Amino acid sequence: MKMPKSFLAFALFLIWPLLLSVNSVAQACTIYVSNKCPFPIWPATAPNQGQPVIASGGFYLPPGQTKVIRAPGTWSGRIWARTSCNFNVNSNSNTGWNPACETGDCDGQLECNGKIGQPPVTLVEISLQVDKSKPSFYDVSIVDGYNLPVSITTKPSATNCRIGGCTKNLKNVCPEELQVKNGRGEVVACKSACLAFNRDEFCCRNQYGSPEKCKPSVYSKIFKDACPWYFSYAFDSPPPLVNCPSDEYVITFCPSKWGSELTDT
Questions:
Q1: Distance in angstroms (rounded) separating the CA atoms of residues 144 and 141
Q2: pLDDT tens string 140-195
Q3: Which residues contact 96 (CB under 8 A, 6 or more apart)?
Q4: Region class of 114: left (phi > 0), else alpha (psi between -120 and 50), else beta
Q5: 94 contacts 58 by C-beta, under 8 angstroms
Q6: I need a labelling partner for 153 at 20 to 30 A (CA). Which of 21, 135, 136, 241 fits?
Q7: SS3 98
Q8: Topology (CATH) of 28-167+229-253
């Protein structure tokens, strides 16, 4: 029996929100942000231009906890962790002291709302493509410096899709001229030579703006030795960039027991 057009239109009206919902799920990726540090961290996100803010731009993550983030299937941006933060939790304000965090601070705000964290900080850089025929890329950069080790993998995990943590605690081997210390004299981060000295040969710019002219420095070699899976300077080669299409990604800060050796287990 042929259905009247009015009935078909009404039926489509009823199921259209469901179809949109299914499509929305299909066009989304899940990012698991895990804290294996023995102290709390405040992960933050910053979208690339034209992309939405995800996870409100920042959140609190206690030790041993994981935050599940839903991101658009074509999202691109940065994720990092802030440490030793002090936000005003007794009011409705999104801000605390300025800076509120020892490392990675974004104008004293809990929710960074698109702001980039203050370097030096270990940066996870992601460019997703829900269409599996197109590449999804991700990497970890310490080109501007380092504050915490981090690993990335897909779910389920695959060896070729994994970026490991660090083989050494970079803060323990950080040259004095690159060290960032807190008020107690503890090294909380390590600047890159570019960030510390702002010189062209370290920043790979101007006359040094090509792989042929900009070579690894004594400082970037220290970074690379401690964290071999990360970008240690702008023209790091071969590029430690991973291309693995997936619907689920796992980002783990302090991916093993905190100590002098920081490797995945």
A1: 8
A2: 999 999 999 999 999 888 889 999 999 999 999 999 999 999 999 999 999 999 99
A3: 85, 86, 87, 88, 108, 110
A4: left
A5: no
A6: 21
A7: coil
A8: Thaumatin (2.60.110)
